Amino acid sequence: MQLTQHTAISTVSLGLAGCLLLPVVGLQNRGLSKLLSSVVGLGVVAVGYRSYVDNRKLTALGEDLGLIERKQSIAWYNSLLSRKQELTLTQSVPVDADVISDVVSYWLQQDKHLLVVGGTGAGKSTFIQSFASVLGAGWHYKLYDTDCTCDDWLYIRSLPNCQMYESFSSISEQMQEDLEVIEQRTVERKQAGNKWTTDNTLIVAEELPVLVDEIEHAGQWLSRHAKRGRRVKRFVAAVVQNDTVKNLGLEGDSKLRDSCFVRVYLGQSAVERAQALKNTELERWLVSGGKQVCLVDDKPALRPTSVQMQTRPTAHKSVRVNAYDSQFSLSSASETAENLAESQCSAVHEPSETTVLLENQPLTGVYVTAEQVEALRELYNNGWSVPAILEGKLGQKRGGSWARKREWLERLLES
Questions:
Q1: What pTM was estimated for this model as a whole?
Q2: Most exposed among 141, 162, 236, 404, judged by the fewest C-beta atoms under 10 Å?
Q3: Cα angle at 134 between 131 and 139, to 5 degrees?
């Protein structure tokens, strides 16, 4: 911190000295004195620029250190001042006692925007859809995604108040419109005071860094929403693979990222974040929890899991598709068995082949109900292969019992 302050002072001082040398050089006649003054002036400018560069680097380092919890930072500084040979930043936290079980409620209480960080395959889109399912259809949704397919965002796109934009030109226009809406609502709010009300809107920016690279005012769009969007009920869910300010288009304004967003880390990004915090217990908890857990504002959390089966129209018929990519059902075997028994109201005649197959499922980690069989059967009739359903909808992996699972599902779908 002292080095940062000293370099800042040096930069300003050298800049002033360089400015004062300009008239001195200009007033002198040509000769050795003017040459020496020019050389000195250039030297002052060069040293000042070097000091400026050092200051930027130190400022960035200070921001990175600010990501570490206060207790850890104090321990780190103390270890330096006491000249210890070894530096230990590990922290033992009772993880289970501090788990955020309801991420959506936590986010609503914070009244901030959402920053979802995760690598490819970490489940960022699934997280957003689960998040939206908890918020419900009372919210308005806007999706900015230039790489989506017809099978993406099925749950959110099925909501009545959802708009989808898939090209850079349309997204650019909508971002400009978003800024105008903020200005308009700000004026309306000032005039109406406490009586002012409006609808809540969640704007999902998939792969925001791509939008920042391609759309000139994307950085301004995010900055304006971060500063003023919350008051007028316009919230952003930025989906990124890493959360550097450059990626977000907020270069030079890291405070905006740190203070205006609830940061969610998924998959390996959550593990790496725990490693950066030097919290080995949290790291182990994240690894063991897999895709059921995440890190929210550096706290352990459970991912929302309330996405339901949705209907997507096709050319000939409607196909019910699960919004989860990796799991078909999150209910336990006992719960789904009870539901299955209730759905089969007739109890006297012999059990059908479907019933027998459902009672003897070889699947791992999921339990398929009779209702879900109909959805799977429609997928099968519309061209989905048995392996594709096993992997894509039921989350099964190829391995030892793969042949038995495939045979079981094929018999189930054709029964």
A1: 0.55
A2: 404
A3: 90
